[in-house]
Amino acid sequence: MQEVNLIATTTFGLEAIAAHELRLLGFPKQSVENGRIMFRAAPEAIGLTNLWLRTAERVRLCMGEFTAATFDELFEQTKALPWSDWLPENACFPVDGKSIKSKLYSVPDCQAIVKKAVVENMKKRYGRQWFPEDGPQYRIEVALLNDRVTLTIDTSGAGLHKRGYRTLISDAPLKETLAAAMLYLARWYPDIALWDPFCGSGTIPIEAAMMGRGIAPGLHRQFAFQEWPGLSQSVFDEQREAARAAVCTDPPDHIVGTDVDPDILRVARRNAQAAGVADDIHFQALPLAEIQTKQRYGKLVCNPPYGERLGTDAQVKSLYKDMGSVFRRFETWSFYVLTAHEGFENLVGRRASKRRKLYNGNIKVDYYQYFGPRPPKPARTTKTSQ
Ligand SMILES: C[S@@+](CC[C@H](N)C(=O)[O-])C[C@H]1O[C@@H](n2cnc3c(N)ncnc32)[C@H](O)[C@@H]1O
Question: Strand 255-259 to strand 281-285: parallel, antiparallel, or no bridges (unpaired)?
Answer without folding.
Answer: parallel
